[in-house]
Write a structure and sequence with these properties.
The chain is α+β, with helices and mostly antiparallel strands. The protein has three domains: 143 residues, Beta-Lactamase, CATH 3.30.450; 85 residues, Orthogonal Bundle (Helix Hairpins), CATH 1.10.287.130; 149 residues, Histidine kinase-like ATPase, C-terminal domain (Heat Shock Protein 90). It is built from eleven helices and twelve strands. A five-stranded antiparallel β-sheet has the order 2-1-5-4-3. The protein has a five-stranded mixed β-sheet with strand order 7-9-10-12-11. It has a two-stranded antiparallel sheet with strand order 6-8. Helix 6 crosses helix 11, helix 7 packs parallel to helix 8 and helix 8 runs antiparallel to helix 11. The longest helix is centred in the middle third of the chain and has 51 residues.
Length: 465
C-alpha cells in the first residue's frame, strides 16, 4: 500500500500551490496593468510629440532633419501624407500602420489617435493635419515591447518568484507548528492502543488541536475507568464462580472417596444440584448479557396480557416469600393490560427483580409486585421493604457490578449481573427501567412498556417457573 505523505509535505505543497495561484493571478493582473499603463503613456507621449511636430510644420513643408533624427532616436517613425493622399516614410511598417489607422481621415478638427497591428506587432499612431490638405503621423511601439517594458515585466516576475519562495518557507513553518502537536497526539493514541493508560496529550497548539488533545485525554480517562470497573467485575464474577465450584468439587470428592455414605448421600446430592444451578444461572446471565450487544439477539415479540403474566409470576414468588417469612402481595387491575413484548424475557426480568428483592428483604417485611396502566404505557413495579439504596446507588444501580462491589460483605448480594441484564433486556424490548425508593421503605424497580394496539386475540405469555 502506498504510504501517505506527511502533514508537513501536504501543508507546504498546499501553501505553495495557493501562493502559485495567487502569483499567477497577481502576475497576470500586474502585467496587464503595466501593459495598459505603458500603452497609455506611450500614446500620450506620442500625441504630445505629434502636436509639436505639426505646429512646427505649419511654416515648413519639409520636416527638419534634426527633428526627424531625434524622433527616430526615440523609436518614433514619421509618415507624411501629401496633398494627393500618398504616404511617404522611411519605415514601411509605419506607413502601413498609418494607413490602417486611418491617416486619410485626419482633419484639423479631428486628429488621429489610433493603433494598428502590423507583422504581429501593435503600433501606435498619432496623426495631425497640416496646411494644404496634408497630414503627418508619428508611429511608435508600446513601451512594454521595448527594453524598458521587458525589464519592468521581468522585475514583476522576479518579485512573484520571491513571493513563492517566501510562501513555501511559511508553509513549512506552519506545517511544523501543526504537525508537532499532532505527532505527539498520535504517539499518545498509539500508546493507548497498546494498553498504556497513564499518558496524556499536553494542551498546546491551535485551539482545534487542543480540543483534539482534550478528547484523547477524556478517552484515556474513560478507558482507564472502564477497565478498572471491568477488572472489579471479573474479580467478583470469579469469586461467584469459585464459591459453588468449590462446594461441588468438595462434595464430589467426598462421594468419590467414600467419605459421605448412607443417609448423607441424598443431602450431598441436593447441595451439589443447588450449587450447579447457581453456576448455570450465572453462566446463563453472563451469556445473555454478552449477547445483548449483538445484532442477532433474538426477541420473540407477541401481544401479552401483563395481568396474566403478573398472576403467573405471583404464584411462584408467593410461595418462595412465604418460605422466607416475607410478606408477598400483588397490586394489579382485573382488566387486561396488553403490551407487545417477549413474554419469556419479560418474565426473566420480573423474576430477577423479585429475586434481588427477596435476597435483601428481612423476614416480616413486604415485597409487592404491582401493575398499572398510564396513558400509552404499562408500568410494572417490584417494591420491597429492605434496606434500600442511597440516591447515588439508585443512579448507578444498572451499571454492571457496581452494587455488588459496594455491598459485598455488607448485605447479601448477587452476581452483579442481574440488574445490568434486566436493563439491557427492557431496553431491547423498547421499554425503560428505573430505580428509586419505595414507600415500603426499601427499593422500587419500575419497568415501563408501551401499550399494544387493540388487537384480537391476545396471546398469553409462556409459562416460566
Amino acid at each position: 500500500m502506498k504510504r501517505a505523505s506527511s502533514l508537513a509535505v501536504r501543508t507546504t505543497a498546499l501553501c505553495l500551490a495557493v501562493a502559485g495561484v495567487m502569483a499567477v493571478v497577481a502576475g497576470g493582473i500586474a502585467v496587464r496593468l503595466v501593459a495598459t499603463a505603458s500603452r497609455e503613456l506611450t500614446q500620450q507621449t506620442l500625441a504630445d510629440q505629434a502636436d509639436v511636430v505639426a505646429a512646427q510644420l505649419v511654416d515648413a513643408r519639409v520636416l527638419a532633419p534634426r527633428l526627424k533624427e531625434i524622433l527616430e532616436g526615440q523609436g518614433v517613425s514619421v509618415v507624411r501624407q501629401g496633398a494627393s493622399g500618398g504616404l511617404v516614410g522611411d519605415d514601411q511598417a509605419a506607413v502601413q500602420a498609418a494607413r490602417r489607422a486611418g491617416i486619410g481621415r485626419v482633419t484639423a478638427a479631428r486628429p488621429l489617435h489610433g493603433s494598428a497591428r502590423v507583422n504581429g506587432s501593435v503600433l501606435l499612431v498619432e496623426g495631425r493635419a497640416i496646411e494644404g490638405r496634408r497630414a503627418i503621423a508619428l508611429v511608435g511601439e508600446v513601451a512594454t515591447a521595448k527594453g524598458t517594458g521587458r525589464r519592468l515585466i521581468s522585475n514583476v516576475v522576479f518579485a512573484l518568484g520571491i513571493g513563492l519562495l517566501v510562501a513555501s518557507g511559511a508553509g513549512w513553518l506552519l506545517a511544523r507548528r501543526l504537525a508537532g502537536p499532532l505527532r505527539r497526539t498520535a504517539a499518545v493514541a498509539s500508546a493507548m492502543s497498546h494498553g498504556r493508560r497513564d499518558l496524556r496529550v499536553p494542551p498546546e497548539g491551535p485551539r482545534e488541536l487542543v480540543e483534539v488533545g482534550e478528547s484523547i485525554n477524556a478517552l484515556a480517562n474513560a478507558l482507564a475507568h472502564s477497565e478498572a470497573r471491568q477488572r472489579e467485575f471479573l474479580l467478583s464474577v470469579s469469586h461467584e464462580l469459585r464459591t459453588p465450584l468449590t462446594a461441588v468439587t468438595g462434595f464430589a470428592e467426598s462421594l468419590a472417596d467414600g467419605v459421605v455414605t448412607g443417609d448423607e448421600v441424598p443431602e450431598v446430592g441436593r447441595v451439589i444440584g443447588q450449587e450447579a444451578g447457581r453456576l448455570n444461572r450465572l453462566v446463563s446471565d453472563l451469556l445473555d448479557l454478552a449477547r445483548l450487544g449483538a445484532d442477532d439477539f433474538r426477541l420473540d415479540l407477541v401481544d401479552v396480557d401483563l395481568t396474566v403474566l403478573v398472576a403467573e409470576s405471583a404464584t411462584v414468588w408467593r410461595s418462595r416469600c412465604a418460605a422466607a417469612g416475607v410478606t408477598f402481595s400483588v397490586d394489579a387491575p382485573a382488566h387486561p393490560v396488553p403490551v407487545h413484548t417477549d413474554p419469556r424475557r419479560l418474565r426473566q426480568v420480573v423474576d430477577g427483580l423479585a429475586e434481588n428483592a427477596l435476597r435483601v428483604t428481612p423476614a416480616g417485611a413486604p415485597i409487592v409486585l404491582a401493575l398499572h396502566a398510564i396513558p400509552g404505557a404499562a408500568v410494572l413495579e417490584v417494591r420491597d421493604g429492605g434496606p434500600g439504596l442511597s440516591e447515588e446507588d439508585y443512579q448507578a444501580a444498572f451499571a454492571r457490578g457496581v452494587l455488588h462491589s459496594r455491598y459485598a460483605g455488607v448485605r447479601p448480594v448477587g452476581t452483579g449481573v442481574g440488574l445490568a441484564l434486566a436493563h439491557g433486556l427492557v431496553t431491547r424490548m423498547g421499554g425503560t427501567i428505573e430505580a428509586g425508593p419505595a414507600r415500603e421503605g426499601g427499593a422500587r424497580f419500575t419497568v415501563t412498556l408501551p401499550l399494544a394496539a387493540p388487537r384480537e386475540p391476545i396471546t398469553q405469555p409462556l409459562r416460566v417457573g
